[in-house]
From TrEMBL:
GO function terms (MF aspect): peroxidase activity
Oxidoreductase in keyword set: yes
Superkingdom of source: Bacteria
Keywords: Oxidoreductase, Peroxidase
UniProt cross-references to Pfam families, sorted A to Z: GSHPx
Entries under PROSITE patterns matching the protein: GLUTATHIONE_PEROXID_2, GLUTATHIONE_PEROXID_3
Protein name stated in the entry: Glutathione peroxidase
Source species: Bacillus kandeliae
The UniProt record lists the keyword Repeat: no
Family: Belongs to the glutathione peroxidase family.
InterPro entries xrefs: Glutathione_peroxidase (IPR000889), GPX_CS (IPR029760), Thioredoxin-like_sf (IPR036249)
Length: 182
């Protein structure tokens, strides 16, 4: 099984097979418009513009599971990204990434790329862990997505290569994307 076995919903309700992205390097991201990490949209868009022609696709999946940071409709989430950050990569329908109603895609991604643990020497991760402990302690367990802007890097064959946590800035893993695109 790989990522191409999944189907996802576009904001207009149409179902799309991820098989359409075969032979592309993918970065799958759970997003939110009212999150501390929301400015990462700007850097994600820069990555997209830099590597799109070489075969990178970024797929955004809005999620409202973390402190209600994506409260609007699918269309509002998508237009927010376009209007505020100039996002041109696809934004899909809102999903749950943890729990009983989690999207099968994210269940697969979490199993393929487990949580690496918090880097307590990184102040952002230390603060994030404290916030999760307070607001969503259940997300501290296991390989659950810890917060918005968790990113998964997938190769052209649909294999999950690596998981990047919310505190991992998109520019910090550009070299890993370049390596896959070669």
């Amino acid at each position: 099984m790989n990522i191409f076995d999944f189907k996802v919903e576009k904001t207009n309700g149409n179902i799309v097979s991820l098989e359409n992205y075969k032979e592309k390097v993918l970065l799958v991201v759970n997003t939110a418009s009212k999150c501390t990490f929301t400015p990462q949209f700007e850097d994600l868009q820069k990555l997209y513009l830099s590597y799109k022609e070489a075969g990178l696709e970024i797929l955004g999946f809005p999620c409202n599971q973390f402190a209600g940071q994506e409260p609007g409709t699918n269309e509002e989430a998508s237009s927010f990204c376009q209007l505020n950050y100039g996002v041109t990569f696809p934004i899909f329908s809102k999903v749950n990434v943890n729990g009983e109603n989690e999207a099968p895609l994210f269940q697969f991604l979490k199993a393929a790329a487990p949580f690496r643990g918090f880097d307590e020497s990184n102040i952002s991760e230390k603060l994030l862990k404290m916030m999760i402990s307070e607001k969503n302690p259940e997300f501290l367990l296991g390989d659950s997505i810890k917060w918005n802007f968790t990113k998964f890097l997938i190769d052209q064959e649909g294999n999950v290569i690596k998981r990047f946590e919310p505190s991992d800035e998109p520019a910090s893993f550009a070299k890993e994307i370049e390596k896959l695109l070669q």
